[in-house]
Specification:
single chain, Immunoglobulin-like, 3 domains, mainly beta
């Protein structure tokens, strides 16, 4: 099990503003504002197959770690999930390190030179090893200046043996992490695409016309609510409506009005967008 967290907030929603002054009601400005809310970006991902394989006696096989990705930065929950997935993939495979001594005339793959950061595909039948690794260090010795023959010592490791793809901050394991847990098979398929292209196309005294930015999934639709809460078929308290078309209208109830959008599919229970799209209207009645 791996948990990843990053204290830089998470992308929450897309805000569209329609504004006009009472003196110039014919002038309408539509602007887009992207912002991040406060809080940690968090993810908890497990590998059930690995947990089962590691069970021994009273050991339930659940071996966890908390990591704070610094480079590359994980700014959203989705970034943290992908980072945790990569770490799980590295942790469940064998760790390999080694070095390879070779003359410059016989560099792997006929390469002209080798640099730290280069990728290697290794097959060592005597060790039962077939894996990919990254060159971590190269030592070059000039043994034959006249013939320009160099001796190379190429050191390598894979991600399971050495953290090559990530740089981490010090983890604070004492902080409670309240975050949904997903398996490695659920990452990337739990949520639908966010409606980042949603926009208001027309405002009248009684209706607001909306374009969701993409057509609904077959069997699904666009769910619209007065507040960013209560998503799902079991709650209709703040529900504006569920629509099966990309373009639709919602009732206009006041001069200043907000509504929130997510798409859903026909699975049971239905999947929704991870983040809501917010539409804000400030326009004279």
């Amino acid at each position: 099990m791996f948990e990843a967290r990053r204290p830089k907030g998470w992308l929450f929603l897309l805000l569209l503003v329609v504004a006009a002054s009472a003196q110039t009601v014919t002038t309408t400005t539509i602007s887009e504002v992207h912002y991040r809310s406060l809080g940690y970006a968090l993810a908890r991902v497990t590998n059930p197959a690995s947990i089962t394989a590691e069970q021994r006696g009273i050991d339930n096989g659940l071996h966890g770690a908390v990591r704070h990705p610094e480079e590359p930065p994980a700014r959203t929950d989705a970034d943290c999930e992908m980072a945790a997935l990569a770490l799980l993939d590295d942790a469940t495979g064998p760790a390999w390190t080694g070095e390879y001594d070779v003359w410059s005339d016989f560099l792997p793959g006929g390469a002209g030179d080798v640099f730290p950061g280069d990728a290697l595909n290794l097959a060592v039948p005597s060790r039962g090893a077939a894996f990919s690794a990254i060159v971590t260090d190269v030592e070059i010795t000039l043994n034959n200046p006249e013939g320009e023959h160099f001796a190379y010592k190429i050191k390598f490791a894979n991600d399971a043996a050495k953290a090559l793809a990530f740089e981490f901050d010090a983890a604070e394991g004492t902080t409670a992490l309240f975050v949904n847990q997903y398996t490695n098979a659920q990452v990337g398929v739990t949520y639908l695409a966010d409606l980042t292209a949603a926009q208001i196309t027309q405002v009248t005294s009684t209706t607001i016309s909306v374009d969701a930015g993409l057509p609904p999934i077959s069997g699904g639709g666009i769910e619209v609510r007065w507040s960013d809460a209560g998503w799902g078929p079991g709650n209709d308290r703040n529900l504006v409506g569920r629509f099966t078309t990309q373009a639709f209208s919602v009732p206009r109830l006041s001069e200043v009005q907000d509504c929130y959008l997510q798409q859903y599919d026909n699975s049971v229970p239905p999947k929704y967008s991870r983040y809501s799209a917010a539409l804000h209207v400030d326009y004279p009645l």
